[in-house]
Design a protein that fits this description.
This protein is α/β, with parallel strands linked by helices. It has a single domain (10-148), classed as Rossmann fold (3-Layer(aba) Sandwich). 44% of the residues lie in helices and 17% in strands. The chain has helices at residues 15-31, 46-52, 56-78, 96-103, 120-126, 129-136, 148-153; strands spanning 6-10, 34-41, 87-93, 110-114, 141-144. The longest helix has 23 residues, at 56-78. The relative contact order is 0.20.
Length: 171
């Protein structure tokens, strides 16, 4: 991936990012470009919380979970990594917006991210990677709208269960 066109797709495992991954692969195919699929992750509770109480075991588990989310994303969208294009996968402990902008540093790159589908509170709490990328990227940014499924599910209230907060400790 040293030269030529690149398509950089932001992946998180969410429905929005699965749409971005699908669009990124389609763009890479149409351009004859390589795809760089990027998943940025942070420790549960954020970096500040981790610095207050570091635990290398938990850090390894979170990184393993991030790698698994990347694999599951390709499996969910394509049934595995597409073989007809060059695909490079990157799982990095970093903030997603700045990392994606840093990686998409050439004018002929295309940065593909998902957008929308969050509540206003979700945008305030998490910020939006898409807005950051569109404001700071030095290449074109393709913002892929969320699938219709998100808007269909939005009115349903979510009832939290204890299983929603469990993290497997056994590897």
């Amino acid at each position: 991936m040293a030269g030529g066109n690149r398509v950089i797709a932001g992946v998180s495992g969410s429905l929005r990012s699965l749409g971005a991954l699908r669009a990124g692969v389609a763009e890479a195919r149409s351009r004859g470009a390589a795809l760089l699929a990027v998943l940025a992750w942070a420790p549960a509770g954020g970096e500040v919380a981790y610095l207050r109480a570091p635990c290398p075991l938990l850090l390894r588990l979170w990184e393993r979970a991030a790698r698994e989310r990347m694999r599951e994303s390709f499996d969910a969208v394509f049934g595995g990594v597409p073989a007809d294009i060059t695909v490079r996968v990157m799982v990095v402990r970093a903030r997603p917006g700045p990392l994606l902008v840093e990686l998409a540093d050439r004018p002929d790159d295309l940065l593909v991210v998902g957008y929308g589908g969050r509540t206003r509170l979700g945008c305030l709490v998490h910020g939006t990677v898409t807005r950051y990328c569109m404001a700071h990227a030095r290449c074109p940014v393709l913002a892929v709208p969320p699938p219709a499924l998100i808007t269909k599910l939005r009115p349903w209230p979510h009832h939290w269960r204890p299983e929603d907060f469990t993290v497997p400790l056994a590897g």
